[in-house]
């Protein structure tokens, strides 16, 4: 009996401590304002085109460190893949300030809190790549100095 109780206690603890990575099977039908413009970005406008969403916060140092990789990926694949930064910030001025400070040339959306919750983003930066049918095919969490290489490999695969 003692072994069974010990086993059950261990199983419960492991279940509580380890949850699976979130899975978002398709690009949500989302509409968010574009920082620095009056435009609204709509996922539906990109039917048939891969989309890469990079979730960030204007205050996040690791997001800022990821910006050069995102910009280079957009430079190399921007004609084939819609690449956008999605900021959790509700204040467009905070987003505009970080864009200016880091010369971030990628289309940047703000007020993305609801989408971030829907997609179960746990930390920043967080990138999700969707294929031409808007199925999630790759997800990256956190900063990595090799992120540009990761992006290049995955973007090459979705553009074939």
Describe this structure in words.
This protein has 160 residues and is of the alpha/beta class. The chain has one domain (21-158): Glutaredoxin (3-Layer(aba) Sandwich), CATH 3.40.30.10. The chain is built from five helices and seven strands, in the order H-E-E-E-H-E-H-E-H-E-E-H. The chain has helices spanning 2-17, 61-77, 92-101, 113-118, 147-158, and strands at residues 31-33, 40-42, 51-56, 82-87, 108-109, 126-130, 136-141. It has a five-stranded mixed beta sheet, with helices on one face. A two-stranded antiparallel ribbon has the order 1-2. Helix 2 runs parallel beside helix 5. The radius of gyration is 18 Å and the shape is globular. The protein starts with a helix and ends with a helix.
Show unreliable segments. 2-21
Shape: globular
Structural class: alpha/beta
| CATH H-level superfamily title | Glutaredoxin
Compute the number of helices: 5
Task: Name the CATH class.
Answer: Alpha Beta
Strand content is 15-25%
CATH architecture term: 3-Layer(aba) Sandwich
The number of domains is: 1
Strand elements, count: 7
The main sheet orders its strands as 5-4-3-6-7
Average pLDDT over all residues: 88
CATH domain fold name: Glutaredoxin
N-to-C order of helices and strands = HEEEHEHEHEEH
